[in-house]
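Researcher: Let's walk through a ligand-bound prediction step by step. First, I give you the protein sequence. Second, the SMILES string for adenosine-5'-triphosphate. Third, you return the three-dimensional complex as structure tokens. Ready?
Model: Ready.
Researcher: Here are steps one and two:
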Amino acid sequence: MKVLTIANLKGGVGKTVTTINASYLLATGYGKNVLLVDNDQQGNCSQFFGVYGYDKPSMTDVMKRNVTAEQVIQHTEYAGLDIIPANLSLAEAEKAVLMDSVTPQQVRLREILRQVKDEYDYVLIDNAPSLGMCVINSLATSDYLIIPAKIDKFTFDGIACLLNQLKTVKEYFNPQIELLGTLITSYRRNDTNQQGAEWLKQAEKYKAFDSHIRWTDKMDESTFTAEPVMVHSPRCGAAKDYKAFVEELLRMVEG
Ligand SMILES: Nc1ncnc2c1ncn2[C@@H]1O[C@H](COP(=O)(O)OP(=O)(O)OP(=O)(O)O)[C@@H](O)[C@H]1O
Ligand SMILES: [Mg+2]
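Model: Step three, the predicted complex:
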């Protein structure tokens, strides 16, 4: 089982659409057993897959250590793609974890994933744009970090900060975690994007993926229709780009 954290301190950079589309492709295109963890109180992945709500266990219970993996994992409509949902109560759970000084705070998600390590090939964890305890839990249980990034100055600042946090988590909780790469999203062919992408690609520490994801108005539409973009609009640039990205990811992780 390979565990991937999808994170960036910056909001609105494509973390959620990357998690959704990569999970969908790994499950349906490559026959992998995939678990998507919605580790964001906004619950966007949960809404997308129609499992948002308060009547079933969620990441809140994972953080509070109230639940087993079997109780919290739900199936989606896609074979091979399961999900641990989240909702707004995760914000309060995150605070409760910080108040609990008796049990380790950083490894609660790890405890759950350990229970299903033989059942999934890939776990993809979508994160909130923060550096709270939920994100620390994600990094502490992951093999790799993927950073979706839009080309602007604020995003670059966020990446530098996240990489510092990665160093700390690596030192204290999870020596094996590595940055897999930075994925440029919402790419447009203009000077700013071209120069920004070039800059990112030559800065070795950011490990930019060869693939980048083009901007398309189909992406917003696909979130409304709750379809992966390659289902909603198979011929659009972003659909092709996400396929290329997942191929690149598989080459890097599986050789
Ligand atoms: N390649 C793309 N082309 C056009 N729009 C995109 C693309 N990728 C993402 N978007 C749009 O940008 C918005 C933000 O995407 P998304 O929700 O995935 O970002 P996020 O990083 O998860 O945000 P948050 O930090 O709030 O969780 C969405 O409306 C989405 O449809
Ligand atoms: Mg999101």
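Researcher: And what stands out?
Model: The radius of gyration is 17 Å. The first strand starts at residue 2 and ends at 6.
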